[in-house]
Design goal:
With 231 residues, this protein is mostly helical. The protein contains eight helices and no strands. It has one domain. It is globular and about 70 Å long.
Length: 231
């Protein structure tokens, strides 16, 4: 039962004609669709998938992550996964995974932690030296080190909260517009109903773009974090 506008983010919420099980099927469908090893010849829509892969790959080629084994494959797979999860949340009655901090944090925290641990084992002195900007006054050195350390430590939180907040806000607005649209079918004029329907359609298209952009920003920031890895 939908008690309020936040009930759609309850993973245990069961509503009429709920297709919550689709989130489990997407994991299998994604493998079958995006993996070329299951196809004798590549379908036409594979070119669309390659556009997204080339987009994130071109960004990695301009960063130090290119020299890290498996980094490009990890970020590319993460980008496609985020696109699927973000877009699947726009389907009615489908649970939105990326609207929860637990999911986004589980995606961002391990990657950030791997970069930190790899940098420490690769060159600890370079990591410590990067905490202090060159040419900084001696009196400010302790404060600058603390500030830089805090800014690095909060990166996985800001990375995850950004994705969660943007996706949650969009779904809440869609829920509100849908509620007003349902009410207008019985209480408002045809003009009001058509206006709300137009707003709903336009905002859904806008949210479609937001889903793609947020997936790209998430992967872009992780790629930028890899530039600070000791060379």
């Amino acid at each position: 039962m939908l008690v309020d506008i936040f009930s759609s983010f309850d993973d245990n919420n069961q509503v009429f004609m709920s297709v919550y099980v689709l989130m489990w099927l997407f994991s299998l469908v994604t493998i079958l669709l995006f993996s070329s090893t299951y196809w004798v010849s590549n379908p036409r829509w594979v070119g669309v998938v390659m556009i997204f892969k080339d987009t994130v790959s071109s960004q990695i080629f301009r960063s130090y992550g290119l020299h890290m084994g498996g980094f490009i494959n990890t970020i590319t797979a993460l980008f496609m996964l985020l696109i699927v999860m973000n877009l699947s949340g726009l389907i009615p009655y489908v649970f939105s995974l990326t609207s929860h901090l637990a999911v986004s944090l589980c995606l961002g925290l391990p990657l950030w932690l791997c970069l930190i641990i790899s940098a420490i084992f690769y060159n600890l002195s370079s990591v410590l030296a990067s905490l202090l900007p060159m040419g900084a006054p001696a009196l400010l050195n302790p404060f600058l080190v603390i500030i830089e350390t805090i800014s690095i430590m909060v990166r996985p939180i800001t990375l995850s909260v950004r994705l969660m907040a943007n996706m949650s806000a969009g779904h809440i607005v869609l829920t509100l517009i849908g509620s007003y649209l349902t009410t207008s079918l019985f209480t408002s004029s045809i003009f009001t109903m058509l206006l709300l329907m137009s707003i709903q359609i336009l905002y859904t298209i806008f949210e479609f773009g937001i889903s793609l952009i947020q997936a790209y920003i998430f992967c872009l920031l992780i790629t930028l974090y890899s530039d600070e890895h000791p060379h």
